Amino acid sequence: MKENLIVVGDTENAEFEKILGAGLDNFNQAACGATDRRPLNVIVQHPETGEVLGGAMGRTSLGLAFLDLFHLPETSRGAGLGTKVLDAFEAEARARGCRSAVLYTISFQAPGFYEKNGWTRFGEIASEQEGVSRIFMTKKLYTQ
Question: Which segments constitute the N-acetyltransferase domain (predicted)?
Fold first, then answer.
């Protein structure tokens, strides 16, 4: 019997992602009786052209929201739009039954922005570049 081939790459592959997602969903269903992983996108568009300017993307699964990417162009920062996008992401996660959310940012990116919006740090890992680290953050999405 031939040994399986392992291929390492650096390009996005929708079919590969679909296969992994289906496998993970099947495993989760068998292990805990549930599979509810869904993408969560908050898109900021130009009001006249509809051009995508930025936003947030992530996913929800088993009561947890994952904020994976968040970007707004420099011209859209500082007037509260980022907080509105983050609020919309959190509101949709709550509507899906998520009780908490997690993300990571880089030390020179936006940890202060997230802290201002109620997120707390729970870990930090230094990179090889002096003074640069990954900061892991969480937020409870419910109030009691």
Answer: 1-142
* Residue-range definition of the domain harbouring residue 115: 38-140
Q: What is the CATH number of the domain that holds 82?
A: 3.40.630.30
Q: Which residues pair with 126 in a beta bridge?
A: 133
120: which strand partners?
138
Percent helix, strand, coil in the chain (nearest 5)?
Answer: 30, 35, 35
Give the pLDDT score at 24. 86
* Under 8 Å between Cβ of 141 and 98: yes
- DSSP sequence for 21-86: HHHHHHHHHHHHS----EEEEEEEE-TTT--EEEEEEEEEETTEEEEEEEE--GGG-SSSHHHHHH
Residue 8 falls inside a structural domain: no
Token readout for 131 is: 């003074």
**Ranges of the chain whose pLDDT falls below 50:** none
pLDDT of residue 143: 63
Domain membership flag for residue 10: no
